[in-house]
Amino acid sequence: MSESTEPTKTLPLVFDEPRGRRKPPRHLADLTEQERADAVTEAGLPAFRARQLSTHYFSRLVDDPAEMTDLPAAQREEVVAALLPDLMTPLRTLEADRGTTRKTLWKLFDGALVESVLMRYPDRVTMCVSSQAGCGMACPFCATGQGGLQRNMSTAEIVEQVVAGARSLARGEVPGGPARVSNVVFMGMGEPLANYKAVIGAVRRLTDPAPGGLGMSARGITVSTVGLVPRINQLAELGIPVTLALSLHAPDDELRNELVPINTRFSVAETVEAAWNYARTTKRRVSIEYAMMRGINDQAWRADLLADVLLARGDWGWVHVNLIPLNPTPGSKWTASDPADEREFVRRLEAKGIPTTVRDTRGREIDGACGQLAASDG
Question: Enzyme group, top EC level (predicted)?
Answer without folding.
Answer: transferase
